[in-house]
Every structure is written in structure tokens, then in C-alpha cells.
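Re-running Arginine repressor to confirm reproducibility after the cluster update. Everything else is unchanged from the original entry.
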Amino acid sequence: MTDHTPALHRPATRTARLSAIEQALLTRIVTSQSQLSQILADQGIEVTQATLSRDLDEIHATKTRLADGTVAYAVGKQNIDEHPASNPDAKTEQQISRVLSGLVTSVAAARNLVVVHTPSGAAQYVASVIDKQPIEGVLGTIAGDDTVMVICSEDDVAKRRAQWLLDVASKA
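Result of re-run:
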């Protein structure tokens, strides 16, 4: 099966490096700095061990024991219970549902995009909630005042994510 996810290109900046580290820790089980260094190198980001150690400290990454006993890095309050799922887990869904249930007024899919309408002023917050979750097939969001555009990797992913967002926002 071929991965059709577009390659993510990052500028060679400290902010981009920190983002890449955080994304790696949110989407993978990373057990060592050398493993993380290799993940970054695969993305074209070369980093020394000292810099990586400072970066992990800056984003408040901690070592956490997983359900299977493995010790891996986690970011902030994020707690990795098992392998990252292709779909958000029940805990993630519950957290998103709590936020989105009062803020999403409509959801529609258009090709590889999901358009989410919110009350005036809420779109930036809704977009940040979506962006902070490792949701397979979601590349990112763009927010205006009352509209969020969720960019998905493919048309069928957008349809599934639109339905999922609608279902999650409908839970009260």
C-alpha cells in the first residue's frame, strides 16, 4: 500500500525544528534521543545531542511509562497509552467533543477540504484544537473569524473527517 500523504517540508529554523520534534512525539513512540535524532534527520533536520536535549526541555517533553512498560517521550500533558491510532482515540474524541460541541455550527466536505463554521470569533480556537490532535490525514487548518478550513491529504479522507467532526461536535 502506497502512502499518499504529501511530504512535509520545513524551513531550517528553530521554531520549525521544535514543531517537528513535537509532532514526532505526538504521532510516534520515541524511546530515545538517538531515535528522535534519526526521525529528524529523515526529515532533513540535523541536530546535535545537546541541542536536542535543550529542545526537549523547552517543549516540556518528559519520559512516560506506556501501558506495555516501555518508557517513551511525551509532550506536556499528553499521555501516550499505546501506539498512536490512525483515528483519534476515545479520550481525544471526548476532549475535542467538549470544546467543539458548543462551537461548531456546520461542517461540509469539498474535495480534500473540510469547511467548519463557528460563531463569530471562535474559528481560531477551533482550528487550534484540531491542530493539536494527531489526526491521520489532516495536514493542518486555516482559520478566519467564523470559518475553519481543514486541509486533508485526500478527498475521501475529507469526507470521513467531516463526518467525524460532525459526530464529535454533536455529542453533548
